[in-house]
Amino acid sequence: xxFLNKKIIKYPIILIAAGIILLILFDKVFMPWYVSADEVxxxxxxxxxxVNAIEALKQLNLQPIEEGPKYDEQFPKDHVIFHIPEPxxxxxxxxRVYLYISGGEPLIKMPQLLGKTIRDAKITIERxxxxxxxxxxxxxxFPARTVVEQNINEGEFVAKGKTITLKISIGPQLGxxxxxxxxxxxxxxxxxxxxxxxxxxxxxxYLASPNLLPNxxxxxxxxxxxxxxxxxxxxxxxxxxx
Length: 242
Known about the structure:
Order of helices and strands: HEHEEEEEHEEEEEHEEEE
Number of helices: 4
CATH architecture of the largest domain: 2-Layer Sandwich
């Protein structure tokens, strides 16, 4: 029992002695080394290219750490916005210096312009800081003066000031006409409507239907509003009695 008590008392004494030794080493060895370590002044890298700042820090035996990019209109891309420690700080050799790098101006998400009038499209992109560079007029089934194509797709990110090319409809080709809606019309009425537009009934497909009157059109091809040439035909699906 006495042996066990002596053993229990012995361990705290050893721990206390070890702590005292560590404190002495810290005070007599580490602190004098730290205090005597070389010190350098952190230069001012704000506004400089990051490659120059990184190289200069390495020559001073400091560790450059890149942070970012942070989008900032005031600083070009890949230039230093600020750094920590600040310029003029006195630091030990080997200290880390955090460089906050600019990503340039914020990127702009390209909007959807298809179907907009040329006026509305210009207003939309100019408000975003973009510009219309080229306008190309094309024949299209879209109404005249509306955008039918944009050279940068919706959702893509572009830099401020980017120029955009738009294709603008000048309306359908001469000699073309839009197909009317024939659904729910009788065959006789559909033939009259097409005749007035210089079109005609094409292939007829009959389908039994207990709920609709015979000779009622329930489907058509081409569909409503499609552009076709004068004289073209429209295929239809027509009801018939059982």
